[in-house]
Amino acid sequence: MAAERVLTLLTEPLNSPGIRSLLNVVSGHPLLLHRVNLGWEALHDSKRLRRDLAASEKRLGWHLWRIYRARNLLVHQGIESECLPQLANHLQQYLSWTLSRLLHGLTFGPEWDRSRLSAILEIQSGSSDDFLGYTA
Amino acid sequence: MDAVDAVKAAVRSSLNLLALYQQRAAPSIRAEAWVFENGRANPVDDRTTSFRNLHPRRNAVPLADKAVAALAESRDEPALRSALDLHNLALSTTDHRLRLVNLWSALECLASLIDGDSIISRVERLVCPILTWRKTDKVLRYLSISIHFWLKSNPQIDRATLPFPLDTVNRWRRNGSLRCSPNR
């Protein structure tokens, strides 16, 4: 998998041949160089990675609120938000990923039920200590 | 594009009245439009291109087969089936308002599997952990695609210095990892 290969490179130690080579390859593209560097930094600082993911989760929550408000305005007052098509696209992605994840969970076995779903979500939310344990 | 939207809104309003008095569905408005300028009709793309961010899964049929089997044994089957129904309904319509409403209803069906004080809190509790968990994978995939496009547009870069074999790039292409542009 491509992403796995990039992950391997980004988790290499400072100044290792792989990451130096990757930085050299993208050195002519400042934005890509910056992103590769950001990725390397994030994967070498578990606290920062946790902070980034927490911030991402918060932004996602805000976006869900935005979609919910747009939907309520439309349904209850007939007001159509300007960015409704974009919101519908984002919602489609969120729903598709969530559904796929739940269906994937179902394929683990017939014992999957609500308590199992809660367990999955709990693991994925994760306590900070657990998270640091995974990423240390 | 705003002018096209304004015209469509006006026509839709008239068609809605027609539907009321005829007691049957009015003709639908097509997504495409033309703007007459200097005696020529120029096509205008619909800016609300639907669902362009998602690509079909390469192994859609086997995945669907597995899900059908798993769904048959699930206790939470009604919520999931309804969500799938509403999702499919949303995909089948071109009206972004109907799409949004149906997609949100599908999400509410799924959120019924979660405890919470309100609908939005249940939706948040369901969606946020799952999507946040995927973020790292998403960023890595984006970087992979960006690197590929960078290499493609710069053939002068010495391939011998790449930190991954070139067949990796070809494999990415084959497995569909490179189907979308990072700019989309």
How does this model look, in words?
The complex is a heterodimer of chains A (136) and B (184). With 136 residues, chain A is mainly α. Chain A has helices at residues 2-10, 17-25, 30-42, 46-77, 84-106, 114-125, 128-135. Chain A is extended, with a radius of gyration of 20 Å. The two termini of chain A are 23 Å apart. By secondary structure, chain B is mainly alpha-helical. Chain B is 59% helix and 5% strand. Chain B has a two-stranded antiparallel ribbon with strand order 1-2. In chain B, helix 3 (77-92) packs antiparallel against helix 4 (96-111) and helix 4 crosses helix 5. Chain B is flat. Chain B starts with a helix and ends in a 10-residue tail after the last helix. The interface between A and B is large, with 66 and 74 residues.
Question: Which helices and strands, and how do they pair?
Answer:
The complex is a heterodimer of chains A (136) and B (184).
Chain A: H1 2-10, H2 17-25, H3 30-42, H4 46-77, H5 84-106, H6 114-125, H7 128-135
Chain B: H1 2-22, E1 33-37, E2 40-44, H2 60-72, H3 77-92, H4 96-111, H5 119-133, H6 135-152, H7 166-174
Antiparallel strand pairs in B: 1-2
Helix pairs in contact in B: 3-4, 4-5
